[in-house]
Amino acid sequence: MSASVAVYRSLYTEDRFKQAYGSEDGATGSRRLRDKLAGRCRCSKRACLHLLRDRVPIVQWLPRYRLRKWILGDTVAGLTVGILHIPQGMAFALLTSVAPIFGLYTSFFPVILYVFFGTGRHVSTGTFAVVSLMTGSVVEQLVPSPLEMNSSSSEAADFEAQRIGVASAVALLSGIIMLCMCGLQLGFLSTYLSEPIVKAFTSAAAFHVTISQLQSMLGLRLPRHTGNFSLFKTLASVMENLPHTNMAELLISLVCLAVLVPVKEINMRYRQRLRTPIPVEILTVIVATCVAYASSLDSSYNIEIVGHIPAGFPRPQMPAVKTFPDIAGDTVAITFVGYAVSVSLAMIYADKHGYSIHPNQELLAHGISNTVSSFFTCFPSSATLATTNILESAGGYTQVLSGLFTSLVVLIVLLLIGPLFYFLPKAVLACINVTSLRQMFLQFRDLPELWRISRMDFMVWVVTWLSVVVLNVDLGLAIGVVFSMMTVICRTQRAGCSVLGRASNTEIYRPLENHSKCYEVPGVKILTYNGPIYYGNRSFFREEMSRLLGLTPEKIRSWEKARKALEKRERDATISTVERGIANTSFSSENEFFKSETSESDVQAVLIDCSSVIFVDVAGARLFTQMCTECQKVGVHVYLANCNESVLKILTSSGLMNYMNPQHIFVTVHDAVMYIQQQREKPPENTTTVWV
């Protein structure tokens, strides 16, 4: 049984509705803002505690920690992620073009700092392949690697110091940028990197990582290419030097891939059954190190090994701040990528587990992590895909204790076990790098669904992916962002303009092209525009409105000519009447003339539904005035309905009310239609006569 609704009320214009239900005091908004600012600036114990809880979330979480329920999951998850951090930290250090020990430092210091300041309970921070690759490109540009250099000489130590100085400078500048963005409340900027952009970018960057690791997997000593078309340059260089492949390193790479790929697939397919994933990376590192040491592979087959890994903490040192002018542009791109990936991951797991993320606080957390850790020879860090997924699937509840256990594992390696990895082949780390990109490669599976849901987002994905692969990581990302914003602009420029019809015996109005059983209200053309009206689309809006209303220049000129003829005839008739002293009723008033003319086209009023017009700029407001004037010239009255407060304020401030009756602005479309019909049903007034 269908329910029916009957509502009886007065017709509401915007003025009448504000008088009945609006705020009495127009200064309420400004006073509320003033009170809010005064409250923020007030210093009290309560305000200090509130600020402390906001800026150091661990103060709020730790007292609520459920020790018995969460401690086991956080312990297992933290230890599992810590074990994974060791090989990945060393492997991603190779992408950054620095020594593996600096990857371990980056897996320790940022994790500790994020525990105190981060809001993502399931986020694991540390080294990330894409950020490491982008940082490595900067390092290679400023400190290119020589083809031949004695690894035991002081020259090699100076070379490594220069490289980590540049990488630390990138981390420091990135942290400063994030802190400045936090101070300016710019956390919303991450929204400009939409989901198709992030997925296409990371998927394309995975190809760059894979190609860059081919030379280590094949045992080739080649310079690293940077700049545009670097992927093809690297691939061409590898293909050209294939005859010089070190067969021992190739064999090591094949064996590692044969172990890593199947076990990772098992971890992924049976993650619900496995209490913790199989730590295949650290097992591979341990076995490969033992085999290389026992067989003296470095001396017998000239394979490249990690070399000396110092034990203990690094001494604090100043990054190479003199390189700031050279690295500024690349660092901005690295900052946005790291922050966007971190916030995206945090939001995904926050939605899954029912808590909220604060983007500005995430800026503060990652800003402090990068700034402080840069003084301990760390390169830029961010949230990581693989370890975050493992942290959540292993049963972690918060990053408070899981992060501490992760840092504990890395700390043990730094203090005690690190030097034991001296004989670890770099080919093993390259294989770990490649196999860690599995999730990024699998993002291709989203394309069919994206094509089905939104062709425009599909195009954004493809353009971003091709730009990153063909050109370069940072330039490709910029092209993807610009293209994505252009699609938004194009969609607002070509928003649809429709004629609305009324459903019988209802107050519901829908576009006629999609609802054939709705009908147009006689004498009223109801139009709706599904987008903002601004300088970029004002011409299109004008063309659509003119087309639907039939306001051609010829019609406007003919009406103008008829108006002038009418005025002249009335003027002559008035003079004649005064001279003869009799009433002349042969001519009707101007309104009667226009009523007779408009009966031909049957459009006497145009009603614009502004419910989908989210904003209007100065150019759009002036266009409204111009359209109102042109409609009045042809005897058509203009009405507005469903205007939001900001649109109505701009239209009023621009002087539209000088050309339009303020009582022609209604709360709903149905109010306006009822008013127009009532005006048409009124009996015509008698002709005024003049007696002398």
Automatic annotation (TrEMBL):
GO biological process: transmembrane transport
SUPFAM superfamilies on file: SpoIIaa-like
UniProt xrefs under Pfam families: STAS, Sulfate_transp
Predominant place of localization: membrane
CDD domains per UniProt: STAS_SulP_like_sulfate_transporter
GO cellular component: membrane
InterPro entries, per database record: SLC26A/SulP_dom, SLC26A/SulP_fam, STAS_dom, STAS_dom_sf
TM regions (residue ranges): 70-86, 92-116, 164-188, 242-262, 332-351, 403-424, 458-483
Subcellular location: Membrane
Keywords of the record: Membrane, Transmembrane, Transmembrane helix
Membrane topology annotation: Multi-pass membrane protein
Stretches assigned to the STAS domain: 514-676
Name recorded for this polypeptide: Solute carrier family 26 member 10
Taxonomy of the source species: Eukaryota, Metazoa, Chordata, Craniata, Vertebrata
